[in-house]
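=== RUN LOG ===
request id: a7f3
mode: sequence -> structure
chains: 1
length: 179
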Amino acid sequence: GETDWSASSLTGNKTTELSFAANETRLSYYYRLMTKVDGVTYYSNAVKVNLVPSVTAIPNVTEAADDDQVVLTATVKNVPEGVTPTYRWYRSLDGETDWSTSSLTGCRTTELTFAANESRLNYYYRLLMKVDGVNYYSNAVKVDYVPESVPEPTITAAANTMEAAEGDQVVITATVENI
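=== RESULT ===
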């Protein structure tokens, strides 16, 4: 922040109030006010704006049946260099209250993986990322449980019509499936 200063084209660049939307490009710079009074140039201290850390959870599927693999992956952004966050997945039935910790494989990483079953699905999941003692929560994601579809039973007779002479033995055979 000490060399290579150039004039800003942002809103308010000629006032005492500079205004801009925070994004990665804008935040890679330092900002300061320069003003001239009676031919003498004065500078404010340099200000660097850092984006707060964020975490976003993304499911690989939104519906799963028994034994389907479900992977919840979290994308982490803006963690300061040299800082190692800690992670913990939580789940809730309504996505609003009563969040409880998950003990599934990967529950302390950015990727939670599990085989789907009715007891693990129909929950909302979110990731808590702790950075320097501050908690950042991901969005809540839900993977709905869809039971395996069971085909309807079918019974099919071997023929729709048969011919028989009076006194012949008649045998009608049927095939039964999906029972």
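=== NOTES ===
The chain has a mean pLDDT of 87.
The two ends are 75 Å apart (CA to CA).
=== END ===
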